[in-house]
Structure formats: C-alpha cells, structure tokens
UniProtKB/TrEMBL annotation:
Name of the protein: MFS transporter
GO molecular function: transmembrane transporter activity
UniProt keyword list: Membrane, Transmembrane, Transmembrane helix
Record field: transmembrane: 20-45, 57-77, 89-117, 150-172, 178-197, 238-260, 272-292, 304-325, 331-352, 364-384, 390-410
Keyword Transmembrane helix annotated: yes
Annotated Pfam families: MFS_1 (PF07690)
InterPro entries: MFS (IPR011701), MFS_dom (IPR020846), MFS_trans_sf (IPR036259), Proton-linked_MCT (IPR050327)
Domain Major facilitator superfamily (MFS) profile intervals: 23-416
Length: 427
C-alpha cells in the first residue's frame, strides 16, 4: 500500500468517511492557493507601480503570462492526476508557490517580478485547480456538489484573508514584508496535510465514493458517465462549456485584479478599497455555498446561467461607483457570481463526463480557462491605459458576462457514452 499506509490505518479507525479527511487537506491547499490570486496582487499594484513606475498593463501581463504557461501545462498535468492522484500535484504546487511568492519580496526589476509571479500564477491556474477538484471529484459522487462547495469556501476564505494579511503587512513595513507574510502563510497552511493524508481514490484503500464499508443500507452509489477525453471532445457539451468558460473567465480575472486601483481612482480610500476586495471575497465564499448546495436542486444549466448574471450585475454596479456603499454592493454581487463559478464549473465537468478521465478532460478544458483568464487582466489594463479610466473595460466585461449567460442556457448533458448515467440535477 506504500504511501497509503497512514490513510488506510486511519480509515479503519475513523467513525466517519475518510473522504472528509481528504477534503480537509484539500481545504488547506485551497486556502494556500490564494497567495498569487489576482485579488491579492491587487493590493500590491499601487505600492509596486508607485515605486518602480510600471504601467498597469505591464504588471497585468504577469498574470496573463502565468495563465498562458498553465494553458500549456494543464493538459500534461491532468492525466497525471488520473494515474497518480492529487497528493504530489498539490504538495509541489504549495511548495513552489510558497517559495516564489516569498521571493517576490526581493524584486527590483520587472523581469524578476515576471519570472517569480508567472511561476506562482501557473501553479495557481493549473496544478492547484486540477489537484483540488480532482481530489474532490474522485472521493465524492452523491455529495460532490456539497464537497466542492466546502473546498471552494476554503479558497474564498483564503481570498478574504490573503489581501488583508498583505495589506496589514504593507501598512506595517512596506510591500516587501507583504509578500513575505503571504509566502509564509502559503507554506504553513498548505503543505503537511496534503503530503501526509491525501489518497488518489477511495478504492485505493478499500472504500467507495461517499461512504465507508458497512453502509450498504444507504443503497448503491449512483452509476457514473465513463467518457474518455476523446469521447468528451466529440460532444457539443464539451464545447459549449468551453465557450462559457472563455466568455466569463476574462471577467473573473480582469475585474478581480483591477478592482482596488479602480476604486482608488474613483476617490475611495485605499483601506476602503482593500476591504471591498475582502467583501468581494466574502461574497465569493457565500456564493460557493449557495450555488454548491443549490446546484442539484435547480440543475447545472440554471446554476451556470445565474452565475454569469451575478457577475454581470456586479460589474454594472461597479460602473456607477461614487462611494463606499455602492462599492461594497458591487463587490458582493460580483463575488457571489465568482463563488458560484468556481464551485459549479468543476462539478459540471465531473457530473457530465465522470471520474474515469476527469483529470485529462479537465486538463484540456483548463487550457481554455487559463487562456481566458490571461486575456482579462491585460485587456483591462490596456483599456485603462488607452482611455485613462476603467469604464470601457467594465462595459466590455458586462457584455461578456451576459453572453456567457446565454451560452449557459444552451448547454445540455452529453448524449452517447454515459448519457443515461448523469444525475438528474445536472441534466
């Protein structure tokens, strides 16, 4: 049993399903993931551009380039998840992210900033996403949406905490100390639980998804779709979900990165702007729970549509910001949509196409996602540098979000291999 000896022994003695232990480790990784999040970087934009004279487009480019690197890496990482599980993927992601984010405190040139942040951002966009939701989807089927919402909530809590940790350290001793504080948090929270306790699938230690041995009275686990990556890519569902992803993720990344400098330009105090970022993150946490718990009730198509509409509503409110109240409202609405997006899209891929090749399928789709994320920050920064404000970029993001809602309405569960096995809530 090798590296699964400790988990196997624990699973025999625990009075509850070992999947919840796996989920706890996933939550620690998810919290640590937010070190190089765009919302965290948003807090550093003003002090770093002020010290070095970099343009907003230049600093946004690091987010985009890191996403492009993840687009190339994700199709390779996905099949590794299917073969070996999330343990090595998440442990490596935490270590590399923690080290690179810590080293950002030593930056004196744009080139070094790009080198370090692009590596951290590649981990954020690729290995973390595949590892976190791969582990959740491998261990949970009947309660997949609930487990994914808990994992997403942990990420949103990290998204609340990291900007505040960074902002507090910046106020105390400058932006270099801010990066040190963020890097230390990544390493302390994220590494050990995953290295010690993660297992590829429940079958590897004699369990079944969602339940330990001895609970047969609960009934058999529902059958799953069995799509391979090639079969999935032959379905309209794959390409509609991919188009939805390509439309909404520029909004996710573009607004998240530039919200703090936008609010400061609208006359808000930097501390208010930082707390609006955390309000957006808190809204994301609430959204992850609401959409995670509600996806089975309203169906995946309606869930994805609502997600896009919330994102669009948030950008509309932000367009009219003239004071803190509007800023908090816009951040909360936008955050609700982001929380729903982060939790519902990985569940949609797993529900529609199954566990068998989830890593390979998600890895291919993630290339589209991180490319879209790469577009958002550069588009927003370039439009701001061109027009002198963020109004046009927010108008573009509103249009993209509403277009995503239309595409979500057109999405259906795939026909063919495994079609009848998809749970009713995702049809």
């Amino acid at each position: 049993m090798g590296g699964n000896r400790i988990p196997a022994l624990l699973s025999e003695r625990l009075p509850f399903y070992y999947g919840w232990v796996v989920l706890a480790g996933v939550c620690c990784a998810g919290f640590s993931r937010q070190g190089p999040a765009v919302a965290t970087l948003s807090v550093f934009v003003e002090p770093m551009t002020g010290e070095f004279g970099w343009s907003r487009t230049a600093i946004s480019g690091a987010v985009s380039l890191g996403g492009i690197l993840a687009a190339f890496a994700s199709p390779v990482i996905g099949p590794l998840l299917d073969r070996h599980g999330a343990k090595a993927i998440l442990a490596a992601a935490v270590l590399v992210t923690g080290v690179t984010v810590t080293l950002l405190s030593t930056v004196h040139s744009l080139l070094l900033f790009y080198l370090l942040f692009c590596i951290a951002r590649m981990n954020f966009a690729g290995p973390y996403d595949i590892g976190i939701y791969g582990a959740v989807n491998n261990w949970f089927v009947a309660r997949r949406a609930q487990a994914a919402s808990i994992a997403t909530l942990a990420q949103m809590l990290g998204l609340v905490a990291m900007p505040l940790i960074a902002h507090g350290a910046i106020l105390a001793d400058g932006w270099r100390t801010g990066w040190l504080a963020v890097g230390a948090t990544v390493l302390i929270v994220g590494f050990v639980p995953n290295w010690l306790l993660m297992v590829r699938r429940p079958e590897d230690i004699g369990l079944e998804p969602d339940r330990p041995p001895g609970t047969a009275a609960a009934g058999p686990a529902p059958p799953e779709p069995l799509f391979t990556r090639a079969a999935a890519m032959r379905t309209p569902t794959f390409w509609l979900l991919s188009l939805f992803t390509f439309l909404v993720y520029p909004v996710q990344a573009g607004v998240s990165l530039h919200q703090a400098p936008y609010l400061i330009e609208r006359g808000l105090d930097p501390t208010v702007a930082a707390t609006v970022v955390s309000t957006f993150s808190a809204g994301s946490a609430v959204g992850s729970l609401l959409f995670g718990m509600g996806a089975r009730r309203i169906g995946m198509r309606a869930t994805l549509t609502a997600v896009a509409l919330f994102m669009g509503a948030g950008t509309v409110v932000l367009l009219g910001v003239h004071g803190p109240l509007q800023a908090y409202l816009g951040g909360a609405l936008y955050g609700l949509g982001i929380g729903g997006l982060v939790v519902s899209l990985p569940v949609a891929w797993a529900d529609y196409f199954g566990r068998r090749s989830y890593g390979a399928i998600r890895g291919a789709a993630l290339s589209i996602q991180v490319t879209a994320q790469a577009v958002g920050p550069v588009l927003s920064g370039a439009l701001r540098d061109w027009t002198g404000d963020y109004v046009l970029s927010l108008e573009v993001f509103t249009a993209l979000a509403l277009s995503g809602a239309v595409v979500a309405l057109l999405t259906r569960a795939p026909r063919g291999q495994g079609r009848d096995d998809v749970q009713g809530g995702t049809r």
